């Protein structure tokens, strides 16, 4: 039979071919090509990372790194880097006036501790209000009149000038109000100071602090008025107007106020 004549143990592999040889030899340059592809991929990754670092460095250079207030940085503040050279003295003085406000608020509070001890004014109510003034007036004054005019001189946009004009005017009135020193207002101004001196004893120390606070409020009022006049003249000379401010607000909205770009 034909089927019985076939050798079931016959190999289908040619005896002329080495069984230990790769069936399909790799080209000699294949490992080199793979290595080059790996190096190219690494180079692309390095270029991508370098681009990201450059973009980050450019952002920091352009927008700055938050550095103020020092104990909890929320905004970038650098008169030297952001304000034109001709305007730096004025903005520096405005910043010092804002710092004086913080000192005046602290002295005002301590003076009212003595007022509470000697029983002048409205006692604990005056003291409590004076404590509230420190964070509230401190933060609002920075956001509503100092920071706007800082941005105004940096960007020369009408919106910032008119925000400053509005809130800067209120700050002048508030400083005069605090300088008077009416009882129950949280102020150790002139009236409270006179009452503390009249009580003698611990009231003398309170009176001295009250006099310092009163002087601080007077300097705030008339210093702010002086700078208000200078800034108003500069704004008009630069061509800023209320119509331009309204147009900028209509175009950019709150972004124009809060952004630094």
From TrEMBL:
UniProt keyword Ligase present: no
GO CC annotation terms, alphabetical: recycling endosome membrane; trans-Golgi network membrane
Chief location bin: membrane
Keywords recorded for this protein, A-Z: Membrane, Transmembrane, Transmembrane helix
Gene Ontology terms: biological process: protein transport
Membrane topology: Multi-pass membrane protein
Name this polypeptide is given: Scamp-domain-containing protein
């Amino acid at each position: 039979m034909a089927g019985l004549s076939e050798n079931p143990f016959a190999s289908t592999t040619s005896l002329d071919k080495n069984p230990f040889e790769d069936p399909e030899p790799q080209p000699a340059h294949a490992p080199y090509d793979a290595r080059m592809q790996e190096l190219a991929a690494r180079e692309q990754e390095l270029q991508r990372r370098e681009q990201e670092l450059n973009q980050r460095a450019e952002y920091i250079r352009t927008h700055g790194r938050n550095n103020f207030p020092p104990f909890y940085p929320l905004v970038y503040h650098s008169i030297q880097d952001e304000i034109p050279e001709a305007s730096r003295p004025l903005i520096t003085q405005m910043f010092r006036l804002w710092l004086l406000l913080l000192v005046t608020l602290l002295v005002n509070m301590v003076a009212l501790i003595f007022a509470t001890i000697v029983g002048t004014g409205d006692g604990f109510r005056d003291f409590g209000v004076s404590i509230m003034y420190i964070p509230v007036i401190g933060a609002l004054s920075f956001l509503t009149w100092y920071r706007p005019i800082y941005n105004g001189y940096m960007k020369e946009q009408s919106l910032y000038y008119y925000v400053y004009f509005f809130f800067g005017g209120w700050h002048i009135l508030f400083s005069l109000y605090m300088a008077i020193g009416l009882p129950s207002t949280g102020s150790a101004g002139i009236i409270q100071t006179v009452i503390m001196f009249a009580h003698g004893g611990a009231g003398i120390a309170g009176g001295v602090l009250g006099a310092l606070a009163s002087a601080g409020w007077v300097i705030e009022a008339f210093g702010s008025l002086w700078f208000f006049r200078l800034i108003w003249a500069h704004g008009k000379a630069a061509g800023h107007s209320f119509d331009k401010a309204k147009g900028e607000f209509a175009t950019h909205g709150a972004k124009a106020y809060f952004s630094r770009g």
